[in-house]
From TrEMBL:
InterPro entries: aa-tRNA-synth_I_CS (IPR001412), aa-tRNA-synth_Ia (IPR002300), Anticodon_Ia_Val (IPR033705), M/V/L/I-tRNA-synth_anticd-bd (IPR013155), Rossmann-like_a/b/a_fold (IPR014729), tRNA-bd_arm (IPR010978), tRNAsynth_Ia_anticodon-bd (IPR009080), Val-tRNA_synth_C_sf (IPR037118). ATP binds at residue 544. It is found in: Cytoplasm. Keywords: Aminoacyl-tRNA synthetase, ATP-binding, Coiled coil, Cytoplasm, Ligase, Nucleotide-binding, Protein biosynthesis. Its main location: cytoplasm. The C-terminal coiled-coil domain is crucial for aminoacylation activity. ValRS has two distinct active sites: one for aminoacylation and one for editing. The misactivated threonine is translocated from the active site to the editing site. It comes from the Bacteria. This is Valine--tRNA ligase. A motif ('HIGH' region) lies at residues 50-60. It comes from Fodinibius roseus. GO terms for biological process: valyl-tRNA aminoacylation. Residues 22-578 form the Aminoacyl-tRNA synthetase class Ia domain. It catalyses: tRNA(Val) + L-valine + ATP = L-valyl-tRNA(Val) + AMP + diphosphate. Belongs to the class-I aminoacyl-tRNA synthetase family. ValS type 1 subfamily.
Amino acid sequence: MDRSTALQDIPKHFDPGSVEEKWYDFWKENGFFHSEPDDRESYTVVIPPPNVTGVLHMGHMLNNTIQDVLVRRARMRGKNACWVPGTDHASIATEAKVVQKLRKEGITKADLTREEFLEHAWEWTEEHGGIILQQLQKLGASCDWERTRFTLEDDLYESVIDCFIELYNRGYIYRGKRMINWDPEAQTALSDEEVIHREEQSKLYHVRYRIKNSDRWVTIATTRPETILADTGVCVNPGDERYRELIGETAIIPMVEREVPVIADDYVDMEYGTGCLKITPAHDENDYQIGQKHDLEIIDMLKPDGTLSETAEYYVGEDRFKARELIIADLQERNQLVDVEEMTNKVGYSERTDAVIEPRLSLQWFCRMDKLSRPAHENVMNDTIQFYPAKFKNSYNHWMENIRDWCISRQLWWGQRIPAWYYGDGRDDYVIARTKEEALEKAREKTGDPSLAGSDIHQDEDVLDTWFSSWLWPITVFDGIREPDNEEINYYYPTDDLVTAPEIMFFWVARMIIAGYEFRGEKPFSNVYYTGIVRDSQRRKMSKSLGNSPDPIKLMEEYGADGVRVGMLFSSPAGNDLLFEEQLCEQGRNFANKIWNAFRFLSMNKQEDTEYSRDLDIDKTNLVDRWMLSRLHETIAGINKDMESFRINEALHKIYSLIWDDFCDWYIELIKADEPGTDIPEQRLARGLNFFEELMKLLHPFMPFITEEVWQHIRPRKTEEAMIVASWPAFDQSAVSAEDQALFSKIQRIISAVRNIRAEFKLSPNDNIDLLISAGDEQTARALRNNEWIFQKLQHIDTLEIRVDLAKPETSASAVVEGTEIFVPLKGFVDLDKERERIRKEIDRLQGFLKSIEGKLNNDGFVNNAPEEVVQRERDKKADTETNLEKLRGILRELE
RNA sequence: GGGCGAUUAACUCAGCGGUUUAGAGUGCUUCCCUUACAAGGAAGAAGUCGCAGGUUCGAAUCCUGCAUCGCCCA
């Protein structure tokens, strides 16, 4: 057949764009992603649901690539793999986006009813929602799209409400007035986890308060002088000599001229500021505690939007930060501002809106966590659920040990509405019910007033924290709350692996574990793999607001999805941050190209009308076949072990190296046709193809597209024989031969030594040389002689002689490999100085090596204490090195 | 303030049970369009493994302290 035609048929470069969509559709349309319960063992992963209106970023790329690797490998191993995709309604973020969009249209949220607003929100969600899931398909994510869920769809909504009611009935949910984190921008309460503390440069203001009926003053220090207007006490440490006489006196708050007591409490740090603390119970958590203890008045001076209310008396209607400036000026004017100190302190910001958080006393719904969290705490500490890397157990433990009640109500509309119905203004004038009818009935019962009408009760306006729905995710995607004994939940739960970012360990992972034990009595997953954070070359976290993140879609267009996947995985061991560089994707693309060309080469050699056997054994008489098989199985074992311990990048490195370094650089070179221009003999090619197929299987989870593409080209396949469902190669210990590997490695080293001689003496690879190999013993000589063809194949050689104790020809370049001498006669062109220099350098290196070995062996402690095996190894090394040195010295003598 | 982690070649990172005078990719130098692949091949240079102690026969690896950087929590 005409070889040049075959060459033209297959392009020189792999073009990912032309195959990715084709194979993705093929997999999807043939149901390879879909799972139904059956007899096989299940392997389940639930996706960490991204925000419904979110856009794919590099963190998602990393995270979902890893999930896909796990899922694809499990599928190939014959498990019933199920990867459930979906999105999260992200109350605050989505509501903020909708509000913003409406504002552009001249509509404010206040103009709308709840129902109207929700209509807009759903519209927005349907328009922008799920883009991110589309984008994941480009990456190759093998999710079961028929199972796509959204946290706000009806049955998930219902399940969340059920759980609220259940927890309320079990006594875990309560309503209370407590200090909470208030986001004045979103105008809602937040949980502690949603507050980000940032250290900043700020000012500590020293302000003096007059003591009533005296000419004395007391100086307090504060970073938030505007809250002075709501002060209801001044506090000092009881052990503080400076202020002892002031305790019990009355201080006068500046501006408002309020009279407040000077109290004593150990809480006050004498070293901090002036050692004298102003107390504002309504606007600071600690102040609130002290206020409660000492029965201080609570004065709330802020409106929900962060402006000052009438209660403040001054600066009413001004924003809190503007008020701060104003009061500083006024205090200065009154001569009450005595000092301004530069300092750093931590300021809390809203995780979603980035507004400065106001601690605020507010009536909210809480979930009591101490008892609820106990099984979740224990079962991570005792490794029933394993964290990768395990170091994250420490922070989990710390959080669990200091767990605080969870504020679960949000003053928003986008989310599951709290099923509490009020019939009066009293704090306990409510009932918990699924429907208005049920609520009315309960309210009548509770009040004993049968005349209560529907118009007398109203439902709580607030919704639940988004995480209060996503903590049920591994259960609700299988409808395990409403139908706790359904076939799917029983089959898929507990799920297997969860892949997520350490940032949401408390928000989400910990809470899922809590919910899993509470509602299913069982863990939600067995392993949690924490990915690193993707950063840019300046170590900044990649984010949309910084604009330092490449567009993943463009990246995939440029390097191919496989290339980007490899790029992401290459330098991302679990839990370590990865500095993303496009170069990594380039490396991935180049690897795809290498594979493509290996495939191209093998294909070029195929004869039309020939069916290459799939189950042909290796040629047992051929060292190269035995070596390749041995390396293959060694790698299978290594990858399996790496994957079990979630060392995914290590596994990828292993298959990368096996394909590139072993298969392409050596195996293919050695199966090439003996005569240029002719094709590889059938059986030899069949064996090469078989090896290549095994390599493609091992690579498939990492690079799904190119592997499927070449797999389908190698032979005609039926649909059910697709790469995606090919069997993962089984490890066979008997295929691994240390002996074959050692011999082949020796041959490789001899060839490298010859190449080095060529390079040093400027011989072109095409120049024919004579090669003399002088083995130290007959056994080695015979082994090498049996494989003469390998030297002939990889080097242009006129005459090759392999014997024991060959004499060094004059004017030749030499090298010694593992006691075997190599001579390349240079026909008078040898630069003797250069050759002597080469040999001396090698002697120096070996002498240094020998010295370090002798150091060990001359040490009695080592010889007596180290394991015999280790000592023997050193002895062998010493003997080998001495032999090599002796031979090199002999060579040098002849040169001098 | 408490905790966790990092510090290895010019750059980005591996190095899991202690033992080939430390590995990969990129970059660099030299040579090569050799029967697939220049997005490639061959050869090579390049590191007292942050600092100081300690344990040990032996430490990049374990322990302690310090320095610098990062993250988490209060």
